[in-house]
Amino acid sequence: MRAGFLAAAAAVLVVVSAVAYLVTRPSLPPPPPAAAWSARPLVAANLPTGGLAHSCLLTEAGTAFCWGGNSYAQLGEGTNRLSLLPKAVRADSFLTALDAGDSHTCAVTREGAVLCWGLNPRLQAGTSKDANCIVGGLSYACNPTPQPVRDVPALRAVGAGADHSCGLTRDGHVWCWGSNDRGQLGRGRDPGSFPPLEVGGGTRFAALSVGAFHSCGVTAAGAVLCWGWNLYGQLGAAARAERCGPNPWSPTPCLRQPVRAEARVRFTAVAAGSKHTCALAADSTAYCWGGNRLGQLGTGDTVHAMTPRAVAGARRFRALTVGTDFSCAVAPDGASWCWGDNALGQLGGTDRAGSATPMRVRVEERFASIGAGASHACGVLESGAAVCWGAGTAGQLGNGFRSDRREPVTVQGDAAQRRRAP
């Protein structure tokens, strides 16, 4: 998330109930100790990753671990029981990329195949439907373990949103699958759910990020192109809009084809959230656009922006991630900075309600990578330890407890390493 997200308040509403199947499989490897998570540079831009109320991380051994909310089997370990500590995903392949959506998760294998698991009523986890998850007395299609997404070329990156997913092929093309009710597949006007389709326009991309209901990519020439939901201007193109949405009687602005964000800046990376988008320029400064009610654009005010605006302070960054109403980045010196909403501690070290300018996360050690969920964030430190902060009532902080934390806590490798509650 980078990952897709719904309203921040929904992050604390998790219902756990039984999955309608029985799982019997061999035991899985235990998670690494707290100081041995991967800080591998090849995955630093994408990992760790957070969803609506769960988190995931990939080790150097190619094994994925997830923890937190699991009502729709989004942890991929074969049940839909919430987990306060990391659980190994039941994947038999070596994984090279990973992304957590709202309630589903996707990964790429070393061979370029894509696997997805979790909630799947809109085909956001692929055309395979392995089981039903019973939540609140209702039945939802879900995949409790990783299932292959078929009919998509070999990938090198993948992104998961609210009810769609996209992958970046090895030759730079983008394919998307799942719901298209807000144009998030980047092709066609039909609002239904679809198997993988290539995004229209034939553009080749160097990077990809999937938000809740929109997606963005960076071309080799440094342009950011986005498509999908545009209610808050998160596509970065002020003058263009269509009308679409899940309710035909109340359509909202969208674009069904990629459109270039209106900025005279060459970009190198992009992070799509729910209501806003941010990107890194070639000079390592950050730009954001879209909704800004809680200062998530980092521009020093709360004015929405239909086109990219520079983040205040002109700081340089090397990695960027966005949540629902907040954003975070890692500076070249390894310091992490966040801005926007802080109602649940998303900024990682201040009691303020929020900040419209970047504030430093209270960790002395250098960050190697960072990833945001809906209302929480996690990072891998250069020592290899993983830390999380923000919303935690679903266990998404991985420290063994169900509570929000305003300062980073260490993700625990196994039950024996649990800390006592503060």
What is this structure, in a nutshell?
The protein has 422 residues and is an all-beta fold.
Plain-language structure description:
A five-stranded antiparallel sheet has the order 5-6-7-9-8, with no helix packed on it. It has a five-stranded antiparallel sheet with strand order 14-15-16-18-17, with no helix packed on it. Strands 1-2-3-4 form a four-stranded antiparallel sheet, with no helix packed on it. With 422 residues, it is mainly β. It has strands at 49-50, 54-58, 64-68, 83-88, 95-100, 104-109, 114-119, 131-135, 138-148, 155-160, 164-169, 174-179, 193-198, 205-210, 214-219, 224-229, 242-244, 252-260, 267-272, 276-281, 286-290, 305-310, 319-322, 326-330, 336-341, 354-360, 367-372, 376-381, 386-390, 405-410. Strand 2 and strand 3 form a beta hairpin.
